[in-house]
Design a protein that fits this description.
- The longest helix has 70 residues, at 252-321.
- The chain is rod-shaped.
- Helix 6 (99-105) packs across helix 12 (252-321) and helix 7 (108-149) packs antiparallel against helix 11.
- It has a domain at 108-131 and 155-321.
- By secondary structure, the chain is mostly helical.
- It has helices at 2-21, 24-31, 38-46, 48-52, 58-96, 99-105, 108-149, 155-162, 168-182, 189-211, 215-247, 252-321.
Length: 322
């Protein structure tokens, strides 16, 4: 008995030494028990313990793996679908915040403010086009008339040189001739010149009022458009805060569209005011330059009148000397 135990221990030590000397993979295979023979497998299946445990077929294992994969695949597809919906909803939200959509979704008062500012801006650009054409024609006619009158020696020659042209220069010449005709028989030259000068001043002021038509609208649009837009913004933000209090949420995605619609009114107001101020300043300079030409025409008419009066006085004195 002792000899048998000693032999068993020696065999075990030798086996462990050989297993440690082998590579890890071979050692693992050596440590694994040998597969049972077919007869032993049959005996194990026939035992009551093996019969009580259900056997799992390889097909069933593969079926279970396929079932898990089928469960994971819909979950992954649902996640990707939810991500796609989120991206599409975000894109839709960004498209909905276009200026036209914000205008359509704005309050009726904010819409009225923006429509009024748009009409004011349209009037501003209309005045720019109309007055640019008007001043271009007026300056061209007046400069041409001044060139024609540069060589005239009397009011009659000046009127003949002007022909049928109708402008402020022809009006000044007609006023000088009319005053000279009405003052026949009055020897006081100073009184005639004074009365003619008064008529010239009225004609120049009337021309200044005529060419300034539309300038008041430009000044009004440039001055009050930012405040009108600000009124629309205040009204829109007030409605947005009322909506926040009713919905009881401070989520930025909920309150941002209303605030953006309100701020659009201020943007429209500035878009109407800035061009109006620039155009007003431009036409102020153009009007000043044109009125300087009109004053030159008034001086030409006054000089022609003075020459005619001096000639008439020379004629009177020569007849008296004879």
């Amino acid at each position: 008995m002792n000899m048998t135990l000693f032999r068993s221990k020696a065999a075990f030590v030798l086996f462990v030494a050989l297993a440690s000397a082998l590579p890890p993979a071979q050692a693992q295979r050596a440590m694994q028990p040998a597969s049972p023979s077919p007869a032993a497998a049959a005996n194990q299946v026939s035992t009551p313990q093996a019969a009580s445990q259900p056997a799992v077929a390889p097909g069933a294992a593969m079926a279970g793996t396929a079932t898990d994969a089928s469960v994971v695949a819909p979950a992954a597809s649902e996640a990707s679908t939810e991500g796609g919906h989120a991206v599409r909803s975000l894109t839709t939200g960004l498209h909905e915040l276009s200026p036209w959509t914000m205008f359509l979704n704005a309050d009726i008062l904010v819409k009225a403010v923006m429509v009024g500012l748009a009409l004011a801006s349209l009037a501003t650009w209309t005045i720019l086009i109309a007055k640019s054409i008007e001043f271009s024609m007026l300056r061209r006619k007046l400069r041409g008339g001044l060139r024609k009158l540069s060589g005239a020696k009397s009011l009659a020659e000046a009127q003949l040189a002007m022909g049928s042209t109708r402008n402020v220069l022809s009006s000044l010449l007609h006023a000088a001739i009319a005053e000279l005709r009405l003052s026949q028989g009055i020897p006081n030259e100073a009184g005639i010149k004074e009365r003619a000068g008064s008529v010239f001043t009225e004609i120049v002021r009337a021309e200044a009022r005529r060419v300034r038509v539309g300038m008041g609208l430009l000044a009004t649009v440039g001055a009050i458009s930012p405040f009108v837009g600000l009124f629309g913004t205040v009204w829109g933000i007030m409605n947005s805060f009322i909506g926040i209090s009713k919905s009881q949420t401070t989520n930025l995605a909920v309150v941002a569209p209303g605030i953006a619609e309100a701020l659009l009114a201020t943007a429209v107001g500035l878009a109407a005011a800035i061009p109006a101020v620039i155009i007003y300043n431009h036409f102020s300079r153009v009007t000043k330059a044109y009125l300087e030409l009109v004053n030159r025409g008034s001086g030409v008419a006054a000089r022609l009148l003075s020459r005619d009066l001096d000639r008439s006085q020379v004629g009177i004195h020569s007849r008296a000397a004879e």
